């Protein structure tokens, strides 16, 4: 789940970068405009992935911190 969320967050970040730099929304151009149903689903999934990414900040599983001892 973490990997899928990370992929979606990266897609969203690249799309926002293209909007900021070139005023070009790749998701909207591929999937039929910002109001198209597929575009809205993708935007929603990217948003949910961002929320999931917030949870990754607070999880300690699999992350080695410098204050932990072996």
Radius of gyration: 16 Å
The pLDDT mean sits at 87
| Helix proportion | over 70%
Order of helices and strands: HHH
Shape: elongated
Number of helices: 3
Q: Based on DSSP secondary structure assignment, what is the total number of beta strands?
A: 0
Q: How far is it from the N-terminal to the C-terminal residue, by CA?
A: 28 Å
Beta-strand content: under 5%
Report the biggest beta sheet as strand number plus sense, adding barrel if it closes.
Answer: none
Stretches where pLDDT is under 50 for at least 5 consecutive residues are none
Structural class: mainly alpha
Describe this structure in words.
There is one protein chain. This protein has 70 residues and is mostly helical. The longest helix has 22 residues. Helix 1 crosses helix 3. It has three helices and no strands.
Can you give me a brief rundown of this structure?
With 70 residues, the chain is an all-alpha fold.
Set out the fold topology:
Blueprint: H1 2-22, H2 26-31, H3 37-58
Helix pairs in contact: 1-3
Keywords:
mainly alpha, elongated
């Amino acid at each position: 789940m973490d990997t899928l969320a990370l992929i979606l967050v990266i897609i969203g970040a690249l799309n926002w970068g293209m909007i900021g730099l070139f005023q070009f929304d790749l998701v909207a151009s591929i999937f039929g405009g910002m109001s198209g149903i597929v575009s809205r689903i993708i935007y929603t999934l990217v948003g949910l992935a961002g929320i999931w990414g917030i949870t990754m900040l607070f999880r300690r599983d699999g992350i080695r911190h410098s204050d932990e001892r072996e």
